[in-house]
Amino acid sequence: MRFRKEEELRRGAAKLRESAGDGPVKVLTSCPSCLQGLSRYSDETGVDADYIVVELARHLHGENWMADYVAAANAGGIERVLV
């Protein structure tokens, strides 16, 4: 099973590189278990795995999106509702 998954990742990455060039290839998922499983193949296949929302945040808000968010939250950027 592991060999088949690794071969599929290699084949998919090669196909992407044929059409898009020799850049990095990343598999996106929203499932924590899938991310953990896909991350195991990164060394052998050269394909990284990440969450879809993390990639969107990085694309929309830049590489430092998380540090910027934490800084804004710590500076009073999050409202608290007291009941």
Report on this model:
By secondary structure, the chain is α+β, with helices and mostly antiparallel strands. Helix content is 65%, strand content 12%. The protein contains five helices and two strands, in the order H-E-H-H-E-H-H. Strands 1-2 form a two-stranded parallel ribbon.
Report the end-to-end length measured between terminal Cα atoms: 52 Å
**Tally of extended strands?**
2
Largest sheet: 2 strands, parallel
Quick check: average pLDDT?
87
Note the overall shape.
elongated
- The whole-angstrom Rg is 17 Å
The helix content, as a percent range, equals 55-70%
Order of helices and strands: HEHHEHH
Spans of at least 5 consecutive residues with low confidence: none
In spatial order, strands of the major sheet run 1-2
Beta content comes to: 5-15%
Number of self-contained structural domains:
1
User: Which class of secondary structure composition applies to the elements?
Assistant: alpha+beta
- Tally of alpha and pi helices: 5
Topology at a glance:
Elements: H1 2-20, E1 25-29, H2 32-39, H3 42-45, E2 47-51, H4 52-61, H5 65-77
Parallel strand pairs: 1-2
Summarize the structure.
The chain is an alpha+beta fold and 83 residues long. It is 65% helix and 12% strand.
